[in-house]
Amino acid sequence: MPEPLTENESKVFQTNLHKLLASNQNDELTIARQILERVPLIDGHNDLPHVIRLVAESQLASFNLTDLADKNPWKSDPSSHTDILRLRQGKLGAQFWVAYTNCNTQHNDSPQKTIEQIDLIYRLIDLYSDTFQLATTAQEIEDIFASGKISSLIGVEGGHSIGNSLGVLRTFYRLGVRYMTLTHSCPTPWADNSQLDNPGQEPIHDGLTGFGEAIVQEMNRLGMMVDISHVSVSTMEDVLNVSKAPVIFSHSGAFSVCNNTRNVPDHILRRLAKNDGIIMVVFYNEFIACGQSANLNDVVRHIEHIRNVIGADYIGLGGDFNGVDRVPTDLDDVSKYPNLFAELLRCGWSQNDLEKLAGRNMLRVMRRVEQVKMELSSMEPIEEWIPSEDLQPEHKQCVTEYS
């Protein structure tokens, strides 16, 4: 039996062990960064434009986006996770910036406020043109990534933003919007949202109405991705029945890991894989750990579960940074993405599968959506109006009659 280590020998052993473990962690972090230098890391959901509206009244001259970490009031705002320095540290290759306006604007001025948010995104890109460049296609993402800039894409969060108008939807597409989340924290007159799946709640439409189906069909024709984060399970089912193109969850988790209605049940995950779509995993603590505290490993549990159910080909990342006030430790701002990839390497993920997670899966989805647009090029724009009977009296209070 070997002699026990002396106190000094034990200290030396522990020191060397810590160095070895740190070296291994650094090796994995180095490999993670190398992966993100080969493949554009595409994040599906960042609410920076909304925070700029709230904190800076959309006035870009009042702050410098280069580095906000130690600047007031940003450093004390729990929803401030993004600046250019941290985007570069996090190896972001492409970011969907979200044009979001809250549900209080529904049936009022939601289209106007959404356009103001789209305008803000354009001004942000123009002001920091050495860092950002607008992208509207998968090929543009790859070309911009090769140039060393960060692709900036536009998503609209909440179908209330179109004011029940297919004409507004088409105009959003022309303005560069490449996905729309069908609902947010409120239902629309044509789709149920996820809160209606909570205990004690009742569906309004039991999914999509006929006009809601027309919206999905028109999004397919335009080449705009249909985002079904925030919708009810019945709405998910209806969208997957109607859509000819792959659909996305821009920022959701796995319901089997955390049973929040914002997350996706396994049977929907399986249908998503058959649809060739993608679920981009969110980082909000309540959706990841069903509580106020979470860590990086909680996010890993969601990613691992989804891979176990449907494989690695249908997963991406949609952090919801700047849209939430509680994020996991070790994944607490946009600079920390390499930590997640390093941890997945430790869990046995191959570099090929991590490239898929980073961006290849989303690029595949975008290319297929673009292909469906080409296949539907002979289809005329849908000129349907929302049926009057679908609108309640309170929906019409701010709507004028015009014919």
From TrEMBL:
InterPro entries: Dipep_AS, Metal_Hydrolase, Pept_M19. It is a lipid-anchor; GPI-anchor. It holds the Pfam family Peptidase_M19. This is Dipeptidase. Its EC number is 3.4.13.19. GO terms for molecular function: dipeptidase activity; metal ion binding; metallodipeptidase activity. Belongs to the metallo-dependent hydrolases superfamily. Peptidase M19 family. GO terms for biological process: proteolysis. It catalyses: an L-aminoacyl-L-amino acid + H2O = 2 an L-alpha-amino acid. It is found in: Membrane. Keywords: Dipeptidase, Disulfide bond, Glycoprotein, GPI-anchor, Hydrolase, Lipoprotein, Membrane, Metal-binding, Metalloprotease, Protease, Zinc. Homodimer; disulfide-linked. It is an enzyme of class 3 (hydrolase). GO terms for cellular component: side of membrane. Its cofactor is Zn(2+).
